[in-house]
Design brief:
Elements: H1 3-16, H2 18-30, H3 33-36, E1 42-43, H4 44-51, H5 55-67, E2 71-75, E3 78-81, H6 83-86, H7 97-103, H8 106-112, H9 115-121, H10 125-130, H11 134-140, H12 142-166, E4 174-178, H13 184-192, E5 197-202, H14 204-216, E6 223-227, E7 240-244, H15 252-265, E8 271-276, E9 278-279, H16 289-301, E10 308-309, H17 310-319, E11 322-327, E12 337-343
Parallel strand pairs: 4-5, 4-7, 5-6, 7-8, 9-10
Antiparallel strand pairs: 1-3, 2-3, 8-12, 11-12
Helix pairs in contact: 2-5, 4-5, 7-12, 11-12, 12-13
């Protein structure tokens, strides 16, 4: 075996063991280890006392996290956060604590354990595991719903400045954010465009958080939060209709149904703005790793959701009464592009 062969094998071994790393990170977050190290190094026994953990076992976890560059061990059995570990402290800008709780939590973790079922049947492993679809499960489980909302809000807060810097939303005097979550992205857009107004369409369960977020940003007077189902009705009166990380949750039939609902609200001069990854036609064109993860995650969690190529986007646009008018450059620090739709005259 050559050195190159050994390096390739070592890389694959690390990938194979990857689930172990994610669960070590999850445990560190659950025990609040990064938060306890916020003000400086602590000994492993002190951390065990503060977390209620078994001291020898916690030391082994801390030592392993140091091996992965998440912690450091400046003195024997004394640990501090490395830059990566600091991102597991919820007080850090751009932290990943909420993402870890969601993606390494049991609902996702156990569903991914049934990936083979999804690959061989095309069915969402989540549905077979929990006996219901993902969004019904969210609606019926308040604790998980809050974990999900927190993770999506945290992600939106990190992504928003890059999205605002990477695309000009100023031509749209009124921007309707369809499925706009807690309003974080809309707030960032409105702050950059004085005089612009915004509307968030969300479910009743999420609408309250959106109102609170927008009011806290001082934007209550320039915004409206509409409660509803985007498969039933989308608010009229916008100049631009934004769907961020929405379309990829659905198969083509449901995606077309959603876009047709948007088409009913969109005027002839308005624009549809779909903010999602756009897959290349072949892997030779360098698929973004995050997009590859997301694509398979949609298979595991949702009944038919997937990341689309440009041609697949074009197909659902045209079936819903839009023409694909353009695709932006990739947004920095993300795998997003803005896919613009122009309504086809009736």
């Amino acid at each position: 075996m050559t050195n190159d062969d050994a390096a390739t094998r070592a890389l694959l071994v690390r990938m194979t063991y990857g689930y172990m790393t994610s669960q070590m990170i999850r445990t560190a977050v659950e025990l609040r280890v990064p938060e306890l190290l916020r003000d400086g190094p602590r000994g492993s026994d002190e951390l065990a006392a503060l977390t209620g953990a078994h001291p020898p076992s916690l030391y082994r976890l801390l030592r392993s996290l140091a091996a992965f560059g998440i912690l450091t061990e400046p003195e024997p059995r004394t640990f501090a956060t490395a830059p990566a570990g600091a991102l597991l402290d919820s007080s850090s800008p751009g932290h990943l604590t909420d993402i870890v709780r969601l993606f390494c939590g049991e609902e996702f973790w156990q569903s991914w354990g049934r990936l083979t079922h999804s690959i061989t049947t095309g069915e969402a492993a989540f549905d077979t595991l929990h006996g219901t679809d993902f969004y019904s499960y969210v609606a019926r489980n308040p604790h998980f719903a809050q974990v999900f909302r927190d993770a999506m809000g945290t992600n939106a807060a990190f992504e928003a400045p890059y999205i605002v810097a990477g695309y000009d939303f100023s031509p749209y005097g009124t921007l309707v954010d369809v499925g706009g979550g807690d309003g974080t992205l809309l707030a960032a857009i409105l702050r950059e465009t004085p005089g612009q107004r915004g509307v968030v369409l969300e479910t009743p369960a999420m609408a309250g958080q959106a109102r609170e977020q927008l009011a806290g940003a001082g934007l209550a007077g320039r915004t409206e939060v509409v409660e509803g189902d985007f498969f039933d009705k989308v608010p009229e009166g916008g100049d631009g209709y934004l769907l961020k990380s929405v379309l990829h949750n659905w198969d083509d039939e449901r995606a077309v149904a959603l876009l047709r609902t948007c088409r009913e609200a969109v005027g002839e001069a308005d624009r549809l703005l779909v903010l999602e990854p756009v897959l290349p036609v072949t892997a030779r064109e360098s698929v973004c790793v995050e997009t590859a993860f997301s694509d398979v995650n949609m298979l595991v969690l949702t009944a038919g959701g997937f990341e689309r190529t440009e041609e697949e986007m074009r197909r659902v646009f045209e079936a819903a009464g839009f023409e694909l008018a353009g695709i932006s450059a990739q947004i920095e620090a993300s795998d997003f592009r803005v896919v613009e739709g122009r309504p086809v005259p009736r």
